[in-house]
């Protein structure tokens, strides 16, 4: 069971906006930054959002992140078929003195 | 261009040992903090541990499930990160990724392509 909680699945149609939630606690999300990773089928994870809402260069502005209290969200607007992937949230946990991940959300583009 | 290439994975029996390597290029390895992250088949991501840069002391942190069995080390002269895995268990079966830890908050930035470790009798 993962320390951070994500819904196992999400879906949307092309052009739609979808959000993926990530719930934690005061020792991780409540105190530290949240990061999001995209894992396309058969590939390594890729950094999508860092420090709650920052996009690395090359990541489209269709992807955005937010954080409030002990929860965070990833929003994808203008959904495209190539967005079909697994998405993971991550944060440092002060109590565990280590990095923790969500269980991952499989996004399906219908 | 992926600057991290893992190697050393394979099939090993429970109780056995294996050493993974991660060859780095395209950045100043000696200044980088590095981590190992694993992913069991069909499962999510799990942090294994990290090593600080030599200039920051080169100390290591290991996650609870592997503490005392796995050891992370580095050889800056060869731009290489290692993961020594001893007393392997079937639940250690996973793809193992090496990653760079960037920024003051040391988040996972670049990832290698991963190497598969299968622990089975």
Give a summary of the structure in a few sentences:
The complex is a heterodimer of chains A (about 110) and B (about 120). Helix content of chain A is about 0%, strand content about 45%.
Q: Look at the structure and give the mean pLDDT of chain B.
A: 95
**What is the typical, i.e. mean, pLDDT of chain A?**
97
The oligomerization state is heterodimer
Stretches with pLDDT under 50, minimum 5 residues of chain B: none
Main beta sheet of chain A, described? 6 strands, mixed
- Greatest chain-chain interface? A-B, 24 and 21 residues
Number of helical stretches of at least 4 residues of chain B? 0
- Taken from the alpha-carbon principal axes, the silhouette of chain B is globular
Report on the structure:
The complex is a heterodimer of chains A (110) and B (121). The relative contact order of chain A is 0.34. In chain A, a hairpin with a 4-residue loop joins β7 (85-93) and β8 (98-101). Chain A is mainly beta. The mean pLDDT of chain A is 97. In chain A, strands 1, 3, 4, 7, 8 and 9 form a six-stranded mixed sheet that branches. Chain A has strands at residues 9-12, 18-23, 34-39, 46-49, 63-68, 71-76, 85-93, 98-101, 105-109. By secondary structure, chain B is mainly beta. In chain B, β4 and β5 form a beta hairpin.
Secondary structure topology:
The complex is a heterodimer of chains A (110) and B (121).
Chain A: E1 9-12, E2 18-23, E3 34-39, E4 46-49, E5 63-68, E6 71-76, E7 85-93, E8 98-101, E9 105-109
Parallel strand pairs in A: 1-9
Antiparallel strand pairs in A: 2-6, 3-4, 3-7, 5-6, 7-8, 7-9
Chain B: E1 4-7, E2 10-12, E3 18-24, E4 33-39, E5 45-51, E6 60-62, E7 70-75, E8 80-85, E9 94-102, E10 107-111, E11 115-119
């Amino acid at each position: 069971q993962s320390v951070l909680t994500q819904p196992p699945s999400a879906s949307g149609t092309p052009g739609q906006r979808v959000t993926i939630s990530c719930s934690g606690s005061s020792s991780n999300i409540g105190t530290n930054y949240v990061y999001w990773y995209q894992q396309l089928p058969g590939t390594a994870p890729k950094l999508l959002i860092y420090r709650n809402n920052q996009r690395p260069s090359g990541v489209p502005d269709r992807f955005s992140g937010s954080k409030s209290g002990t929860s965070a969200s990833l929003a994808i607007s203008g959904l495209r078929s190539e967005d079909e992937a697994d998405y993971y949230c991550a944060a440092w946990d002060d109590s565990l003195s280590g990095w923790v991940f969500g269980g991952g959300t499989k996004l399906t583009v219908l | 261009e992926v600057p991290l290439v893992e190697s050393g994975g394979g099939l090993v029996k429970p109780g056995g040992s294996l050493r993974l390597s991660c060859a780095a290029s395209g950045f100043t390895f000696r200044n980088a903090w590095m981590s190992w992250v694993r992913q069991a088949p069909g499962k999510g991501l799990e942090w294994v541990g990290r090593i600080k840069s030599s200039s920051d002391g080169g100390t290591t942190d290991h996650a609870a499930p592997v503490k005392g069995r796995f050891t992370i080390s580095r050889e800056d002269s060869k731009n290489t990160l290692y993961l020594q895995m001893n007393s392997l268990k079937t639940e250690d079966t996973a793809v193992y990724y090496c990653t760079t830890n960037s920024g003051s908050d040391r988040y996972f930035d670049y990832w290698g392509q991963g190497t598969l470790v299968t622990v089975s009798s």
